[in-house]
Amino acid sequence: MFTRNASGASSCPSAVIRDRVIAARGLQITRFTGETGVYCNAMMGSRLLKKVCVLDPTGAALLRKAMERLNLSARAYDRILKVARTIADLAACAAILPEHVAEAIQYRSLDREDWAG
């Protein structure tokens, strides 16, 4: 399923990634059945966010620490939760695990570092 690229890092064939994305979108469509105007994690409002993005104590502590250290806003908090939920969906994981939160925080950190110029 996974192969190594020229640098030695593992990579995943496009077809496998495509299947994971399709499965994750299916989970989200099912999750939001009955919710008017919500079809994916990015569209969640505050009420749904509290219901769908429940963190365990380790994940909550990790996110709280990131909020303090990176001086993030409440809006950034919500975005990180949505991305973490999506990462968990891509991994076919019902719960948002601390590693999903950590990955979402990393993406947010990259966004804030002006790495693109």
Automatic annotation (TrEMBL):
Start and end residues of each Mg chelatase-related protein C-terminal domain: 13-108
Residues of the signal peptide: none
Entry-linked PANTHER family: COMPETENCE PROTEIN COMM, MAGNESIUM-CHELATASE SUBUNIT CHLI
Record-given protein name: Magnesium chelatase subunit ChlI-like protein
